[in-house]
Task: structure prediction
Amino acid sequence: MRFLINFLLLVASVSVQSSQIVLIMDDMGNKPQDAEAFSLPENIAFAILPNKALSKSFSEKAAKQQREVILHMPMESLGGVNQEEGVLLSTMSATAIIGRLQKALDTVPNAIGLNNHMGSKFTQLSFPLSVTMEFLLEKGLFFVDSRTTRYSKAQRIAQQTGVPNTMRHVFLDHVVELEEIEIQFNRLIELAKKNGYAVGIAHPHPETLHFLQGHLPALEKQQITLSKLSDLFPKYTASIPLLFKD
Result:
């Protein structure tokens, strides 16, 4: 009965907050030029890479803006190439995974959640994901599945563990060209109109920042709200998946 009540409350909350988009700016803190993203609306969350020279200062600056920060945690990819320092590997013990997560979190203060950087291999494997989700549960952090593989088990294991979670629905700039970014941005809006909300991930490319600076002000005319990431995680819905139709 309690589950049914919570489920109905979730549906109601999505309906009341209809046509929301949530934007996450990935790969923040990798280079000084990323700082241009601070000029974007403060409702855009920053996913900050750990263990970088700018990780801590970017996290602190974002917090001063009242901008939400999440840890953009490197995870093992199927190709095993271009892996960041401190990457989580599928062969690690639970102790090693927890150690790397804590070290990464220490370099991104103010983080209220985590999403995966790469991770097409790691997010398919139950054991390392379970260890990761237990860590997030203990720390009171939510999880966003970047969906770098269609075979990801991350959301399912997050739900089983009781970690509040959602997933990326659109990559805005998988192709870094203004025309393609516009196509994906319009797709994000259509998904939000259809389902009540949609989550987009972008990167601090000059083309992406230019596009968003020019197009975000027009959202209100389309009856679209740019919401904070945490708006998707009311406390009472921690173990209930958000409904979504692609």
Notes: The first helix runs from residue 2 to 16.
